[in-house]
Amino acid sequence: MNTLEVTAGFLSTGKLFNGSFKAHLCLVCLFLLGLSSVTAYAVSSESSVMAPRASRSLLLDCQAVGSFAAAVGERGHILTSADNGKTWSQANVPTRATLTGVFFLNQNLGWAVGHDQVILRTRDGGRNWSLLYSNPQDERPLFDVFFKNAEDGVAIGAYGLYLVTSDGGDTWTEGDFMPKKYSSTVSDQETREGDDEIWDFHLFQYAPSENGHRFIAAETGNIFRSDDNTSWMAMPSPYNGSFFGVLPLEDDTLLIFGLRGHLFRSEDGGVSWRRIPVGSQATLTRGLRLKSGEIVITGLAGTLLISNDGGNSFVVRQQPDRQNILKAVQTADESLILTGAFGVKRLTLDKLGIGNGSDPHVKDN
C-alpha cells in the first residue's frame, strides 16, 4: 500500500473510517495542488508562497507555548500567533511540502516535519525557518516530531520511519525501530525473526508521559511504549483499527483513540485496556488535558469530546460546521486553538460548556 493510499472516506464529510487520516488529508492536499508523485520531489526545495488566506488552508498540526502558538499544513504553510491565537502571521518557509507536525521547546526554538521527509527548524519564534533535512526519494512522509531538550529529538512517520538526532536537528539518522512484544510468551528469537514484517507500520503520534514513559500511536491497533527512550515494546492492543492519538495522563493512566470513535483507557501503562463509549463514530485524532483538568479529544466531522472525570466518560460537542478537527491546544488565556480542514480558529471554553461552574456533561437544550 502506498503511503498516500486511501481505503475509504471523504475529507469534506469527515466520513473517514479506514486507512490513515493524515495520509488521506495529505492526498487530498496534493490533488488540490495538482501535484503528481514526480513533481512532489521538487517541492521540498521550493519556498512556500505567502498567501493571504493561509489561515483558512488545510492545517494539520499546531502547538502552543504560553500566549505563543504555531500551526502547520499544506503548501509548506506555517502560521504563528503571539496573542493567544487572535491574530496570525505567515512565516518564511523554505519548502512547499505539506507539513504534518510541529513542536516548540520554548517560544523561540521549534521544529516542523512533513512530506518529502522535510525537517525544519526555527530559532526566532517561527518567523523564519531553515531546512535541516529532506529525503523525497524515500517516499515515506514524517507525521510527528518531539524534542526532549535542545539537542535530542525524534521524528516518526510512515512504514516505521524513525529518525533521531542528538545535535538539535543538524544531522539525522534512521533509528532501529524494532519493538519487542510485551507478552512474555514470545521468545526474543521469534520477535527478531518477525521484526521486518511486524513493525513496518505507520507511526502517527509520539507522546511522552510525566513518569518518563514514551508512547507511539500507530497503524492497525499498534501502541508502542518505551521506558528508556531507546528500546520499545509493542503493548497489548484492544483493537485492530488504527490509533491516531495517545494521551498520557497522571501516573500510568493513558487514553488511546482512533478510527470510528474507538477510545480506550489504561491505568497500568498500556498493559490492559477498558473501552470508553463516546457517543460518536467519528474518527478521533488528537487529545489534550486542559489546565482545569478537563480532557478534550478532537475528531472528524467537527467532533469534540469533553471529559471532566479523567477520561472515564465523555460528551460530544459537535461543531455546527462539521469540518474535520485534527488538533487542539490551549493558550495562556485558556482559550483553545483548533486546526483542521478549515484552517485555524480560536474557541473559548464557554462554547464547550467548560468553566464558570458549568458542567460539560450536562447537554445543551
UniProtKB/TrEMBL annotation:
The keyword Chaperone does not apply. One of its GO terms (biological process) is photosynthesis. It comes from the Bacteria. Keywords: Photosynthesis, Photosystem II. One of its GO terms (cellular component) is photosystem II. Residues 84-174 form the Photosynthesis system II assembly factor Ycf48/Hcf136-like domain. The keyword Ribosomal protein does not apply. This is Photosynthesis system II assembly factor Ycf48/Hcf136-like domain-containing protein. It comes from Desulforhopalus singaporensis. The lineage of its organism: Bacteria, Pseudomonadati, Thermodesulfobacteriota, Desulfobulbia, Desulfobulbales.
